């Protein structure tokens, strides 16, 4: 049983707010309509019955009262009075309207009845008679007691009325007339009034239900739209959070690898300085200790030769130092355009190696930030260096452009290619870390027909 209620509750919660209101609100308004309609029709029935009974009672009383004697002193009616009542109730308009008539004494004795068999008989007082003897006009429509079989068998709608008969000078109730009025017209009028009241109640309830349903439906649609938009935003936010988390991990890994690469790069610079310029300077220092400069009798010709060798050694050392610095020091590219940065890197490589490079790019390139420009310059510089060293400078080319809203730069050659998993050295690894640290992508494509290095950067293209 608990599981059934849980399933019903789950299915109910899955319904839209509008459908929930239609079911729950419709049922609630139906119950309210039945309660209000029943109350209204009951009030209408009682009011119409009471008013009709009062009118009829007044009419009957005006006809019957003059015929009655002083009922406080008379224990029974005289024959003349009964005859007058028979004539009055047996003919004319009043006789046609009354299906039955009884005159009750306070002790429950029937002083007169249209059915003469009941005259003189005594019965217990029912609630209606007691109310009438207390001064109230009581009326019932098509409601019969156990002693009213004849009226029930009449087969026509009857309005039962109990009317108190009052003493003219004191106003005290001395008897009660009980009569049954043929109420065919009353029944039709009452049915019409009840139908009208039900139609009004039902129409009002339906109108209220439709108005409320319209409001709830509109609100439900707005809530559903907002819920859908919220779900899309949450989904997008979750995607962004996932992307940010992945990017953060990539940046952390790139930072760690960059730190290690910097250490390796510094060791390589130290090794280059130690193995190159430092050795030449040390050689020049040793030659300074030559006997030519200590005055041991060597001639000026030997000294000149030694000085020339020392100068040559120092010039070689200076040339190597400048070569190392040329690879380390960047030109002024922060304020240069992206196209100028590409031309500068290509021209520097052509001047230094004496080879030619094909540069292809559109007339307009977006202007990235300083970090992107530095990455582009270093990428072209390192890519062309590799093309010259490993690809023998064959078919060197640089191409740039925009694709899918991102700036791409590629460096290619026609060399024999290499295995990226084994041969990606310090320079390419450093470039990869540099590009990925600013949110870019680095790709290496190599094969027997050549090598292509590609980077893609997210920049906004400007008109």
From TrEMBL:
Entry's EC annotation? 2.7.13.3
Q: Name all Signal transduction histidine kinase subgroup 3 dimerisation and phosphoacceptor domain ranges.
A: 267-329
Domain Histidine kinase/HSP90-like ATPase span(s) in chain numbering: 374-459
| Keyword Amino-acid biosynthesis carried by entry | no
**SUPFAM superfamilies noted in UniProt:** ATPase domain of HSP90 chaperone/DNA topoisomerase II/histidine kinase (SSF55874)
Q: Which CDD domains is this protein grouped with? A: HATPase_UhpB-NarQ-NarX-like
Q: Per its record, what are the GO molecular function terms? A: ATP binding; phosphorelay sensor kinase activity; protein dimerization activity
One Pfam family, short name please? HATPase_c
Q: Which UniProt keywords apply?
A: ATP-binding, Kinase, Membrane, Nucleotide-binding, Phosphoprotein, Transferase, Transmembrane, Transmembrane helix, Two-component regulatory system
What GO cellular-component annotations does this UniProt entry give? membrane
List the Gene3D superfamilies: Histidine kinase-like ATPase, C-terminal domain (3.30.565.10)
Reactions the enzyme catalyzes: ATP + protein L-histidine = ADP + protein N-phospho-L-histidine
Which superkingdom, per the lineage? Answer: Bacteria
From the record, give the transmembrane residue ranges: 21-40, 195-217
What InterPro entries does UniProt report for this protein, alphabetically? HATPase_C_sf, HATPase_dom, Sensor_HK_TwoCompSys, Sig_transdc_His_kin_sub3_dim/P
By what name is this protein known?
A: histidine kinase
Q: Which organism is it from?
A: Mesorhizobium australicum (strain HAMBI 3006 / LMG 24608 / WSM2073)
From which lineage does this chain's organism come?
Bacteria, Pseudomonadati, Pseudomonadota, Alphaproteobacteria, Hyphomicrobiales
